[in-house]
Task: structure prediction
Amino acid sequence: MLLKSISYWAFPGGLEGTLNIKEFMTKAKKYGYDAVELCIGETGVLGLDADQTYCESILKQADEIGIKVASAASGTYWGFNLAGESAADRDKAVEALKKMIKITSWLKVRTLLTITGAVSVFFLPDNPVLSYDVVRERSIEGLKKVLPAAEEYGVILGLENVWNKFLLSPVEMAQFIDSFNSPSIGAYVDMGNIIPYGYPEQWLRILGKRVAGIHFKDFRAAVGNAEGFVDLLEGDVNWPEVMKAIKEIGYEGPVVGEMIPLYKHYPEVRIANTSNAMDAILGR
Result:
Protein backbone atom coordinates (compact mmCIF):
# COMPACT_ATOMS: atom_id res chain seq x y z
CA MET A 1 0.00 0.00 0.00
CA LEU A 2 1.26 3.47 -0.88
CA LEU A 3 2.05 5.63 2.13
CA LYS A 4 0.09 8.88 2.20
CA SER A 5 2.73 11.43 3.21
CA ILE A 6 2.96 15.18 3.73
CA SER A 7 5.90 17.55 3.35
CA TYR A 8 7.33 19.50 6.27
CA TRP A 9 7.19 22.56 4.00
CA ALA A 10 3.39 22.33 3.81
CA PHE A 11 3.03 23.51 7.42
CA PRO A 12 3.52 27.01 8.88
CA GLY A 13 7.18 27.36 9.85
CA GLY A 14 8.24 24.58 7.50
CA LEU A 15 9.89 26.70 4.81
CA GLU A 16 11.64 28.70 7.51
CA GLY A 17 12.89 25.53 9.23
CA THR A 18 11.46 26.66 12.58
CA LEU A 19 8.57 24.22 13.04
CA ASN A 20 9.32 21.72 15.77
CA ILE A 21 9.63 18.28 14.14
CA LYS A 22 7.68 16.46 16.85
CA GLU A 23 4.88 19.01 16.54
CA PHE A 24 4.93 18.57 12.76
CA MET A 25 4.69 14.79 12.96
CA THR A 26 1.95 14.99 15.60
CA LYS A 27 -0.14 17.26 13.40
CA ALA A 28 0.49 15.12 10.34
CA LYS A 29 -0.83 12.12 12.27
CA LYS A 30 -3.83 14.15 13.43
CA TYR A 31 -4.75 14.96 9.83
CA GLY A 32 -4.60 11.34 8.75
CA TYR A 33 -1.19 10.94 7.12
CA ASP A 34 0.75 7.69 7.24
CA ALA A 35 4.14 9.31 6.82
CA VAL A 36 6.10 12.56 6.53
CA GLU A 37 8.81 14.02 4.35
CA LEU A 38 11.42 15.82 6.44
CA CYS A 39 13.30 18.76 4.95
CA ILE A 40 16.96 19.47 5.58
CA GLY A 41 18.05 23.10 5.71
CA GLU A 42 21.43 24.72 5.96
CA THR A 43 20.33 25.63 9.50
CA GLY A 44 17.09 25.18 11.45
CA VAL A 45 15.53 22.27 13.30
CA LEU A 46 17.04 19.79 10.83
CA GLY A 47 20.20 21.49 9.62
CA LEU A 48 23.43 20.28 8.11
CA ASP A 49 24.81 19.95 11.63
CA ALA A 50 22.33 17.18 12.52
CA ASP A 51 24.07 14.05 13.81
CA GLN A 52 23.06 10.40 14.03
CA THR A 53 21.90 10.66 17.65
CA TYR A 54 19.56 13.52 16.80
CA CYS A 55 18.15 11.65 13.80
CA GLU A 56 17.57 8.58 15.94
CA SER A 57 15.66 10.71 18.44
CA ILE A 58 13.38 11.89 15.61
CA LEU A 59 12.69 8.29 14.61
CA LYS A 60 11.90 7.41 18.23
CA GLN A 61 9.41 10.28 18.38
CA ALA A 62 7.85 9.18 15.09
CA ASP A 63 7.44 5.66 16.43
CA GLU A 64 5.75 6.98 19.58
CA ILE A 65 3.41 9.13 17.49
CA GLY A 66 2.65 6.26 15.13
CA ILE A 67 3.88 7.81 11.91
CA LYS A 68 6.70 6.96 9.50
CA VAL A 69 9.54 9.13 8.22
CA ALA A 70 9.47 8.10 4.57
CA SER A 71 11.57 10.57 2.54
CA ALA A 72 13.80 13.62 2.76
CA ALA A 73 14.10 16.86 0.79
CA SER A 74 16.15 20.04 0.93
CA GLY A 75 15.89 23.62 -0.21
CA THR A 76 19.59 24.41 0.07
CA TYR A 77 19.92 23.86 -3.69
CA TRP A 78 18.49 27.30 -4.43
CA GLY A 79 21.28 28.98 -2.47
CA PHE A 80 24.18 26.87 -3.77
CA ASN A 81 24.17 23.82 -6.01
CA LEU A 82 26.32 21.44 -8.01
CA ALA A 83 25.96 23.48 -11.22
CA GLY A 84 26.28 26.98 -9.80
CA GLU A 85 28.28 29.81 -11.36
CA SER A 86 30.74 29.98 -8.46
CA ALA A 87 33.31 27.21 -8.01
CA ALA A 88 33.22 27.88 -4.28
CA ASP A 89 29.46 27.38 -4.23
CA ARG A 90 29.80 24.16 -6.23
CA ASP A 91 32.33 22.84 -3.74
CA LYS A 92 30.04 23.89 -0.88
CA ALA A 93 27.15 22.05 -2.54
CA VAL A 94 29.18 18.85 -2.80
CA GLU A 95 30.03 18.90 0.88
CA ALA A 96 26.46 19.80 1.86
CA LEU A 97 25.04 16.98 -0.25
CA LYS A 98 27.42 14.49 1.35
CA LYS A 99 26.15 15.61 4.76
CA MET A 100 22.53 15.34 3.63
CA ILE A 101 23.15 11.82 2.35
CA LYS A 102 24.33 10.82 5.82
CA ILE A 103 21.35 12.51 7.48
CA THR A 104 18.98 10.74 5.08
CA SER A 105 20.53 7.38 5.91
CA TRP A 106 20.35 8.12 9.65
CA LEU A 107 16.63 8.83 9.20
CA LYS A 108 16.42 5.36 7.61
CA VAL A 109 14.78 6.58 4.40
CA ARG A 110 15.97 5.72 0.91
CA THR A 111 15.28 8.86 -1.16
CA LEU A 112 16.68 12.38 -0.90
CA LEU A 113 15.07 14.90 -3.23
CA THR A 114 17.93 16.43 -5.20
CA ILE A 115 18.22 19.44 -7.53
CA THR A 116 21.58 19.58 -9.27
CA GLY A 117 21.28 23.11 -10.60
CA ALA A 118 19.31 25.49 -12.79
CA VAL A 119 19.54 27.30 -16.10
CA SER A 120 17.44 29.99 -14.44
CA VAL A 121 15.09 30.31 -11.47
CA PHE A 122 11.93 32.39 -11.86
CA PHE A 123 11.78 33.40 -8.19
CA LEU A 124 15.47 34.41 -8.14
CA PRO A 125 15.57 37.00 -10.96
CA ASP A 126 18.98 38.38 -9.90
CA ASN A 127 20.66 35.02 -10.46
CA PRO A 128 22.59 34.68 -13.72
CA VAL A 129 21.12 32.66 -16.58
CA LEU A 130 23.45 29.73 -17.22
CA SER A 131 23.93 27.80 -20.43
CA TYR A 132 22.02 24.51 -20.53
CA ASP A 133 25.05 22.49 -21.60
CA VAL A 134 27.14 24.01 -18.81
CA VAL A 135 24.51 23.10 -16.22
CA ARG A 136 24.46 19.56 -17.57
CA GLU A 137 28.26 19.24 -17.51
CA ARG A 138 28.56 20.61 -13.99
CA SER A 139 25.65 18.47 -12.76
CA ILE A 140 27.36 15.32 -14.02
CA GLU A 141 30.66 16.35 -12.47
CA GLY A 142 29.05 17.15 -9.12
CA LEU A 143 26.93 14.02 -8.97
CA LYS A 144 29.99 11.87 -9.66
CA LYS A 145 31.65 13.44 -6.63
CA VAL A 146 28.79 12.56 -4.28
CA LEU A 147 27.72 9.21 -5.78
CA PRO A 148 30.24 7.15 -3.78
CA ALA A 149 28.72 8.49 -0.56
CA ALA A 150 25.16 7.81 -1.76
CA GLU A 151 26.10 4.26 -2.71
CA GLU A 152 27.92 3.69 0.59
CA TYR A 153 24.93 4.86 2.65
CA GLY A 154 22.26 3.27 0.45
CA VAL A 155 20.57 6.56 -0.46
CA ILE A 156 18.92 7.36 -3.79
CA LEU A 157 19.38 10.90 -5.06
CA GLY A 158 15.96 11.62 -6.55
CA LEU A 159 16.36 14.22 -9.29
CA GLU A 160 13.23 16.36 -9.29
CA ASN A 161 11.52 17.99 -12.24
CA VAL A 162 11.36 21.58 -11.02
CA TRP A 163 11.04 24.86 -12.86
CA ASN A 164 14.78 25.12 -13.37
CA LYS A 165 14.66 24.79 -17.19
CA PHE A 166 16.81 21.66 -17.03
CA LEU A 167 15.95 18.02 -17.81
CA LEU A 168 12.74 19.08 -19.51
CA SER A 169 11.52 15.73 -20.83
CA PRO A 170 11.15 12.26 -19.31
CA VAL A 171 13.25 10.80 -22.13
CA GLU A 172 16.12 13.15 -21.37
CA MET A 173 15.83 12.55 -17.63
CA ALA A 174 15.86 8.78 -18.18
CA GLN A 175 18.98 9.02 -20.35
CA PHE A 176 20.64 11.34 -17.83
CA ILE A 177 19.93 8.94 -14.95
CA ASP A 178 21.06 5.89 -16.92
CA SER A 179 24.36 7.55 -17.83
CA PHE A 180 25.53 7.10 -14.22
CA ASN A 181 24.81 3.37 -14.17
CA SER A 182 24.14 3.58 -10.44
CA PRO A 183 21.24 2.47 -8.24
CA SER A 184 21.76 5.65 -6.24
CA ILE A 185 20.46 8.00 -8.96
CA GLY A 186 16.72 8.09 -9.61
CA ALA A 187 13.85 10.44 -10.42
CA TYR A 188 11.65 12.38 -8.01
CA VAL A 189 8.54 13.13 -10.08
CA ASP A 190 6.36 16.10 -9.14
CA MET A 191 2.85 15.84 -10.64
CA GLY A 192 1.98 19.54 -10.62
CA ASN A 193 5.33 20.83 -11.83
CA ILE A 194 4.94 18.91 -15.10
CA ILE A 195 1.58 20.30 -16.20
CA PRO A 196 2.84 23.46 -17.99
CA TYR A 197 4.91 21.36 -20.41
CA GLY A 198 3.82 17.73 -20.19
CA TYR A 199 1.77 14.92 -18.66
CA PRO A 200 2.65 13.34 -15.31
CA GLU A 201 1.40 9.90 -16.31
CA GLN A 202 3.75 9.91 -19.31
CA TRP A 203 6.70 10.87 -17.14
CA LEU A 204 5.88 8.06 -14.72
CA ARG A 205 5.55 5.43 -17.44
CA ILE A 206 8.68 6.50 -19.31
CA LEU A 207 10.82 6.75 -16.19
CA GLY A 208 9.42 3.48 -14.84
CA LYS A 209 11.65 1.81 -12.26
CA ARG A 210 13.80 4.93 -12.08
CA VAL A 211 11.06 6.67 -10.07
CA ALA A 212 12.26 6.97 -6.48
CA GLY A 213 9.84 9.59 -5.19
CA ILE A 214 6.52 11.24 -6.08
CA HIS A 215 5.11 14.63 -5.09
CA PHE A 216 1.36 15.15 -5.25
CA LYS A 217 0.58 18.69 -6.40
CA ASP A 218 -1.97 20.14 -8.80
CA PHE A 219 -1.81 22.95 -11.34
CA ARG A 220 -4.11 24.87 -13.68
CA ALA A 221 -2.42 25.05 -17.05
CA ALA A 222 -4.42 28.09 -18.19
CA VAL A 223 -2.81 30.22 -15.48
CA GLY A 224 0.69 29.44 -16.71
CA ASN A 225 2.68 30.80 -13.78
CA ALA A 226 3.26 30.06 -10.10
CA GLU A 227 -0.25 31.30 -9.30
CA GLY A 228 -1.50 28.17 -11.09
CA PHE A 229 -0.72 25.82 -8.20
CA VAL A 230 -4.03 24.85 -6.59
CA ASP A 231 -5.41 22.28 -4.19
CA LEU A 232 -5.43 18.64 -5.25
CA LEU A 233 -8.33 17.85 -7.61
CA GLU A 234 -8.74 21.53 -8.56
CA GLY A 235 -6.17 21.51 -11.36
CA ASP A 236 -5.39 19.66 -14.58
CA VAL A 237 -3.55 16.61 -13.27
CA ASN A 238 -5.35 13.51 -14.55
CA TRP A 239 -5.34 11.71 -11.22
CA PRO A 240 -7.04 8.45 -12.34
CA GLU A 241 -4.44 8.09 -15.10
CA VAL A 242 -1.62 8.98 -12.69
CA MET A 243 -2.75 6.23 -10.33
CA LYS A 244 -2.86 3.75 -13.20
CA ALA A 245 0.69 4.69 -14.14
CA ILE A 246 1.92 4.37 -10.55
CA LYS A 247 0.47 0.87 -10.41
CA GLU A 248 1.89 -0.09 -13.81
CA ILE A 249 5.47 0.86 -12.91
CA GLY A 250 5.26 -0.92 -9.57
CA TYR A 251 6.11 2.14 -7.49
CA GLU A 252 5.71 1.34 -3.79
CA GLY A 253 7.27 4.37 -2.13
CA PRO A 254 5.45 7.24 -0.43
CA VAL A 255 3.35 9.79 -2.29
CA VAL A 256 3.97 13.17 -0.69
CA GLY A 257 1.63 16.15 -0.60
CA GLU A 258 3.79 19.23 -1.12
CA MET A 259 1.34 22.10 -0.79
CA ILE A 260 3.11 25.43 -1.25
CA PRO A 261 2.32 28.28 -0.67
CA LEU A 262 0.21 28.14 2.47
CA TYR A 263 -3.28 29.54 2.78
CA LYS A 264 -3.15 33.18 3.84
CA HIS A 265 -5.53 32.44 6.71
CA TYR A 266 -6.04 29.19 8.65
CA PRO A 267 -3.28 27.37 6.74
CA GLU A 268 -3.84 24.01 8.41
CA VAL A 269 -7.20 23.76 6.65
CA ARG A 270 -5.18 23.05 3.50
CA ILE A 271 -3.50 20.14 5.26
CA ALA A 272 -6.90 18.65 6.05
CA ASN A 273 -8.18 19.29 2.52
CA THR A 274 -5.08 17.65 1.05
CA SER A 275 -5.54 14.59 3.25
CA ASN A 276 -9.15 14.19 2.09
CA ALA A 277 -8.17 14.64 -1.55
CA MET A 278 -5.35 12.12 -1.27
CA ASP A 279 -7.76 9.59 0.22
CA ALA A 280 -9.97 9.99 -2.84
CA ILE A 281 -7.05 9.75 -5.25
CA LEU A 282 -5.67 6.68 -3.49
CA GLY A 283 -9.08 5.03 -3.36
CA ARG A 284 -9.30 4.88 0.43
